[in-house]
Amino acid sequence: MTVQEKALNAINSCELTMLGNINEQGNPQIKAMIKAKNEGLKVFWFCSNTSSKRVEQLKKDGNACLYFHNDSWEGVMLHGQAEVSYDDDIRKSFWQDNMKMYYPLGPLDPDFALIKFVSMNGNYYKDLQNEDFEIE
Q: What is the pTM of this model?
């Protein structure tokens, strides 16, 4: 099994993801996010509020990382770029009825934003071993 396959298996066993980025003062910060969808190791989608600090920060500086950790003590860190999207078709595809409490106007609510993260490279950790890898 390749390191990319091991990393993807670990990621697919995680619901919660840590999203790290740089704030306006140039300081790193991290926030727990629920992964809405991933396309292999390359593209990850998250739902957020337009009014959130995170969305504003990512609009200014898209440099970001993701960190996944599961119960087997596997960890995966991905480095890449994040951007904010308001693509109506994608927002509709992610919509779930229980989101109405956050976005009362539905999937086209102006406060309903998507964060798209595109990975460039990563690191897989298990059993005190680290393996770096590139993402095509």
A: 0.94
